[in-house]
Amino acid sequence: MLKVAKFGGSSLADAAQFQKVRNIVLSDDARRLIVVSASGKRNKNDNKITDLLYLCHAHLQYSVSCEQVFSMIESRYLDIKRELGLAVDIESDFARLRQKLDKSLSVDELVSRGEFLTARMMAEFLGYDFVDAAQLVCFDFDGKLNLDKTYEAMRQALSEHERIVMPGFYGSLPSGRIKVLSRGGSDISGALLAAATGADVYENWTDVSGILMADPRIIENPRRIDIVTYPELRELAYMGANVLHEGAIYPVKDAGIPINIRNTNQPDDPGTIICDEQSAPPAPEDPLITGLTGKKNFTVVTVSKNQQEDNLGIIRRTLEIFEKYRVEVEHIPSGIDSFSVVVATEQVEGCIYDIVGEIRALCRPADIRVIDSMALMAVVGRGMSYRPGVSGRLFAALGDANINIRMIAQGSDELNIIVGVENKDFEHALRTVYHNFVS
User: Fold this and answer.
1) What is the layout of strands, in order, in the sheet containing 367-380?
2) Cα 265 to chain center, whole Å?
3) What is the per-residue pLDDT across 89-130, written as a single tens digit (0 to 9) for each?
4) Residue pair 372/345 in contact by the 8 Å Cβ criterion
5) Which DSSP letter does residue 84 get?
6) Nearest to 16 by CA among 264, 188, 357
7) What is the reported pTM?
8) Which residues of 255-285 are buried (b: 16+ CB within 10 A; e: fewer)?
9) Any long-range contacts for 331-337 (C-beta under 8 Å, 24+ apart)?
10) How far apart are CA 258 and CA 255, in angstroms?
11) End-to-end CA distance of the chain
């Protein structure tokens, strides 16, 4: 068996966390490919190394000395090295980087050094080989990731090294210039390595024991999701759940490799498995819902059709008007005599009256109504389509709680039910549904 294990910044914040990572890796011989982020926060008042490196770059752009911030970064790493008794020469790495600290130093190269230095130390601590991501993650000149070259380089590295530590977050252009992925990109680096090498599982180690069924800021002690499918995860993420970087899902999904979200601080917890639908078909004993999430602050524009006019194309023309104003449409629930367009309020704050005016002029509807302060709640579950009465139970629970439902939408695959309520009822609605379906 082969496992790729990616450790996030919270798992590498200090020497004690390094020791936890070492214990996890060495406890399973299959964990041969390790990807690391830059050291993260040691406590809630601390700073992530990546944020400090971005701050250094901002100082340089304004011709302000960044020595104080840079020294803070250097001290963090030297403390870890000293406490772990490492011999790796990161002092020379810092000396070379300090010499390059001017406006000509690219932001990508500077901020990538957090992952680079963390990986250098972790490789020695584990007794693994360090392989620079600049040699493995390949971009084209236009900045797009070249999957073929990346996979080829990663497979070659696996053939040359039995055990690898690779920095996450960055790669290189054909010129050799460092280019970073988007924030959270170490998740993508790990997924690419897993897909390229045909790993049996991609472990993503962080500071939570998997994905929770609901937001713990709203639901007290929500249950962990044991198994979630990729479509369910996408629905939860789209509606606001804080899960993996979206770019980390596709490489392993296409390769049929499950993701296991684990907790570095509680390594015995099984975490959450993310897999394809074939690996997790609905079973009678499964929870009725997988998870629920949502977001506030939507605007709903309801257009009533004019029966005296030709209504052919009225929805298309309405959507073209929203597209003209570069407003992303979230949902389009419809009925016989009307349809609604649901959008994020922040996208139409400065143009909603212009949009309504153009709809009136071009579509000549019978009426247009605009409703603000709407929240959308998503109830997600692969088992809902196999069990009758889910919608009825959901609406009855909300009705019994005196929550006014303003909108209902359900996908054709019956994977989720979207319910629109007023902003003021959002938290109450989430708690009501959770306690009726889960607890």
Assistant:
1) 329-331, 338-344, 291-304, 367-380, 416-422, 407-410
2) 21
3) 999 999 999 999 987 889 999 999 999 999 999 999 999 999
4) yes
5) H
6) 264
7) 0.86
8) bebbbbbbbbeeeeeebbbbbeeeebebeee
9) 331/376, 331/407, 331/409, 331/418, 333/407, 333/408, 333/409, 337/304, 337/305, 337/307
10) 9
11) 37
